[in-house]
Write a structure and sequence with these properties.
The C terminus is likely disordered. The chain has ten helices and twelve strands.
């Protein structure tokens, strides 16, 4: 395999890890549509009232377990743990389950380019639990032993990457990030606000906004109603390892109590990752299957080999 393909593979793997870690947090609709939505004057409500509404949405979202999702992401240079790799924009659409963890999505955008070269336009991504598969297409298959599916065991990949902070952390958060947990994060915000009623998809939705720093998140050590203390601690640990310093979150909850739009900014040491997400069809059936083993190329094995050949410098 050529060096350029190896670099591209590592870059895409890192992008995929980042997506897996954040896809549940938000999925992308049209943030401009939400920003320009007609507004009604917000009724005065206390942060406690706002948190009560968010807790109810958390319970419903957890119980739904799945949804159709579209997502737009903007990644700063170095956010994937590879300097300059993965920077740019990305769009994703498909279905996602958070209990159990699974997704089947198509992604495209400038973040899939390496060295100014487009790596294939659209890429299908399938995830089952902590293993991700990316269909790289026929052209890439020529340099992946004839196999067009790239396999990424996120846990194994973190170890093979030599323990880079971003990669290790993002793989750790990939398994258990979902829309319900993002609601939990916003619920923890000491300044969460209800901004009133707006129209999303032609229907009224309640608009909430809040910010949360890592210190604030750690200080609030009581388990969210409906979330176990153990799950809450796992979430906090994954945020710490990922180098996330703070969250800026806006979301819109429809009359059925589900989030339909979620805009999130994650302030990280490498820069700010921004996402705009749109959800529909909560509870939709998610039937995801892994591609045949004979058609998959394991990038973790490739990275292990590269590390052995360079004294672990890969």
């Amino acid at each position: 395999m050529s060096k350029s393909v190896k670099r591209a593979g590592m870059s895409l793997a890192a992008v995929g890890i980042l997506v897996a870690a954040t896809a549940g947090c938000q999925s992308g609709g049209d943030s401009k549509k939400a920003a320009e939505a007609p507004k009604k004057a917000a009724q005065q409500s206390s942060p406690k009232d706002a948190r009560t509404a968010l807790q109810a949405a958390y319970k419903k979202t957890s119980a739904a377990k799945s949804a159709k999702v579209t997502m737009k992401l903007s990644l700063p240079a170095g956010a994937t743990g590879t300097a300059g790799a993965g920077a740019g924009d990305m769009e994703m659409s498909g279905i996602q389950s958070w209990d159990p963890a699974a997704m089947d999505m198509t992604m495209s955008g400038s973040a899939l380019a390496q060295g100014g070269k487009d790596l294939g336009g659209k890429i299908r991504m399938v995830q089952l639990d902590n293993v991700m598969y990316m269909d790289m297409g026929a052209a890439a298959a020529k340099e992946m032993d004839g196999k067009h599916w790239m396999k990424m065991d996120l846990g194994a990949l973190a170890g093979a990457a030599g323990g880079g902070a971003s990669t290790q952390a993002l793989t750790g958060s990939a398994q258990k990030q979902d829309p319900a947990q993002q609601l939990a994060i916003l619920t923890d915000s000491p300044n969460v606000k209800h901004l009133g009623t707006e129209q999303i998809d032609g229907a009224p939705a309640e608009h909430y906004k809040g910010t949360l720093t890592l210190d604030e998140m750690a200080a609030n050590n009581q388990a969210l109603d409906g979330m176990s203390a153990q799950d809450r601690q796992k979430l906090l640990d994954s945020v710490k390892k990922a180098g996330i310093k703070s969250y800026d979150t806006e979301l819109w909850i429809n009359k059925d109590g589900y989030p339909v739009q979620m805009n999130v900014g994650m302030n990280m040491s490498e820069g700010k990752v921004t996402m705009s997400a749109h959800y529909t069809d909560y509870g939709t059936k998610v039937a995801v299957t892994a591609p045949p083993a004979a058609e998959t190329f394991d990038i973790a094995e490739m990275m292990k080999g590269a590390g052995a050949g360079t004294g672990g410098a890969a």
